[in-house]
Amino acid sequence: MKKKMKKKITGKTKLADVTKMNPEAAEILFEEGLACIGCAMASSETVEQGCMAHGMQKKKIDRLIKKLNMEKK
Questions:
Q1: What is the DSSP letter of 36?
Q2: What's the whole-model pTM score?
Q3: Count of structural domains, the chain
Q4: pLDDT tens-digit profile of 26-63?
Q5: Whole domain around residue 17: which residue ranges?
Q6: Cβ atoms within 10 A of the Cβ of 34, count?
Q7: How far, in Å, CA of 50 to CA of 55, rounded?
Q8: How far is CA 65 from the centre of its chain?
């Protein structure tokens, strides 16, 4: 069962902060074809910027953000 996290990840959240907020984030990003955590831009780029740089459309970005905000119970 999954539950929502307390602090919410948004499109404006820096990629470097995502794994601090959700320990499962790296795995989720890799599943979506994004190796953002190891990227030099992760410290300055937001989730939305990173996704757009990889050609993701808004709808898919929204689904990814929703997934990043869920955690296993």
A1: G
A2: 0.81
A3: 1
A4: 899 989 888 877 777 778 899 999 899 889 999 999 99
A5: 2-72
A6: 19
A7: 9
A8: 6
CATH number of the domain enclosing 41: 1.10.3910.10
- Cite the DSSP H helix spans in 1-73: 15-21, 25-31, 47-53, 58-68
Spatial distance between the Cα atoms of 8 and 31, rounded to a whole number of angstroms: 20
Residue 16 main-chain phi, psi, to 5 deg: -65, -25
- Give the strand pairing for 70-72 and 2-4: antiparallel
For 14-32, b/e burial (b = at least 16 CB within 10 A) is: ebebbbebbeebbebbeeb
Judging by beta carbons within 10 Å of its beta carbon (0-12, 13-18, 19+), is residue 54 exposed, middle or buried? middle
3-state helix, strand, coil in the chain (%, to 5): 55, 10, 35
